[in-house]
Design a protein that fits this description.
It comes from Actinomadura rubrisoli. By secondary structure, the chain is α/β, with parallel strands linked by helices. It is built from ten helices and twelve strands. A six-stranded mixed β-sheet has the order 8-9-10-3-11-12, sandwiched between helices. Bound molecules: adenosine-5'-diphosphate.
């Protein structure tokens, strides 16, 4: 099986530049019932920075991405995207949820790619890419189609524009899912175990594409992965998580080369 590489115009020609917001978690607490998944979590991601979250299963990594997508509600603390927060303080200093319009504006800045692709199965590739921009953002149809073509070119799937997801390999579906996320013109891109569901021979192609996107754009990226080579490749900084807290953080060379915490050493020994 040949791993197709995007032969299109390259990310810098297709993706917007400038003005990517940073992210800040401030004493964020998230519980599922009695299970405290995030414990007063503090961290920041600078505008345009690529940060990878690593750590054992169940340590809260996916929950962080889902909170940023507003797919989950936080229990305490604040989450900032640029100068906006998912919560406001009222006059009495009480936290109240941001209003719907405000949430919508924030949400528009964030795109996510999931482990299981989550393409619309009853729509062809083109509509998978245009549906969101047209319906949710009010982009004129012909503009959305033009942009979709550019993105499909970039991910090397221009010839699949009329195909349905079921006619595509897992790797191709994930490329479409990446293009679909980018079609919404997010400034923050969240990647949740994006190669875990792929056959091994398809992993490298998708990773190469994401690396090109990371290098050819100024998106702020937050990535959860168990692929340590990919983490090393794509990130400016790695955060090691355990039990809803950051155990240590640093540039990938240091975290993978000379981790200072025993929990990081144990984790890396188990996955490498
Ligand atoms: P990771 O991504 O590090 O594997 P997750 O963020 O997926 O961790 O999960 C953290 C913890 O939260 C786990 O204990 C998981 O069982 C729990 N959890 C996640 N989502 C839900 C949910 N919707 N309902 C109940 N518990 C959940």
């Amino acid at each position: 099986i040949s791993v197709q590489k995007g032969d299109g115009p390259g990310p810098s020609a297709v993706l917007p530049r400038g003005g990517a917001p940073g992210i800040r978690f401030e004493k964020v607490v998230k519980r599922f019932g009695a299970n405290v998944v995030l414990r007063e979590l503090d961290f920041t991601v600078a505008p345009g920075e690529r940060v990878t979250l690593i750590g054992p299963s169940g340590s809260g990594k996916t929950t962080i991405l889902r909170l940023l997508m507003t797919l989950e509600k936080l229990d305490e603390g604040l989450i900032w995207i640029g100068d906006d927060t998912l919560w406001h303080m009222d006059k009495g200093g009480k936290r109240v949820p941001a209003n719907q319009r405000h949430l919508h504006e924030m949400r528009k800045q964030v795109g996510m790619v999931f482990q299981q692709f989550n393409l619309f199965p009853n729509m062809n590739v083109l509509r998978n890419l245009t549906e969101g921009p047209v319906r949710a953002l009010g982009v004129p149809k012909d503009e959305a189609v033009e942009r979709a073509r550019g993105l499909l070119d970039m991910v090397g799937l221009a010839d699949k524009i009329d195909a349905h997801p079921s006619q595509l390999s897992g790797g191709q579906q994930q490329r479409v899912a990446i293009a679909r996320a980018l079609a919404m013109e997010p400034r923050v891109l969240l990647l949740d175990e994006v190669t875990s569901a792929l056959d091994p021979e398809l992993v490298v192609g998708v990773q190469d594409l994401l690396r090109d996107i990371a290098r050819g754009s100024d998106l702020t990226m937050l990535c959860v992965t168990h692929e340590m080579g990919f983490a090393k490749d794509i990130s400016d900084r790695v955060l090691m998580f355990d039990e809803g807290q950051i155990v240590e953080e640093g540039p990938p060379d240091r975290i993978f080369g000379e981790p200072s915490e025993q929990r990081t050493r144990d984790f890396l020994q188990a996955v490498l």
